[in-house]
Amino acid sequence: MSVVENFIKKSTMAILPACYEMYRTVILDQSGEKIYSYKSTKEILEEACIAYGADYDGRIKAVRYALKYNRKTPLMICPLEIIYAFPTMSPDNFDCIWLFNRHIDSFFKDNGQSYVHFKNGEKIAVNCSLDVLTRQRQRTAVTMMHFSQPPFVTITVNARGKEAFTKE
Questions:
Q1: Contact, 27 vs 44, CB < 8 A?
Q2: What is the mean pLDDT of the segment spanning 140-150?
Q3: Cβ–Cβ under 8 Å, residues 33 and 65
Q4: Residues β-bridged to residue 36
Q5: What is the pLDDT of residues 41-61, one digit of tens each?
Q6: How far apart, in whole angstroms, are the C-alpha atoms of residue 125 and residue 146?
Q7: Bridge-based pairing state of the strands 34-37 and 23-29
Q8: Mean pLDDT, all residues of the chain
Q9: Which residues, other chains included, contact 26 with Cβ-Cβ below 8 Å and sequence gap of 6+?
Q10: Which residues are within 8 A (CB) of 58 and not within 5 positions of it... i.e. 6 or more apart?
Q11: pTM of the predicted model as reported, rounded to 2 decimal places
């Protein structure tokens, strides 16, 4: 039996690739803490999804099926806790940064470099345009809205006492 170390919580702001000694990933927390991990970003996200009830591929497939976001798909890690993240580029790219929507205050550009400004005052440089950041944030908001609304189920009973369930 393996133990899942889940570093992803409501307070997670971003996951970045690490180029520091043998660490592969840096997790930024709203408290200002930086957690360095030997695991890849994909491994961390996979473990977080599993800790919250599904695997990474299942979460991605659900969003792609429902919303047709086939590239740079937002990830719903835990809909109940409202933990959603989006990639700045293809998740297969080493330089991909995952940003957690709930902590973002704004985006800005300075000397040609794009930055994310978080609600706690921290900022990080990111490797994509402001247009990509804005589009990804909007797509994540749509994903959050879609999956936060429970499906409505109608139960009807016909004259013979048989029940029928309809999902709207």
A1: yes
A2: 88
A3: no
A4: 26
A5: 999 999 999 999 999 999 999
A6: 30
A7: antiparallel
A8: 89
A9: 15, 16, 17, 18, 20, 34, 35, 36, 37
A10: 49
A11: 0.86
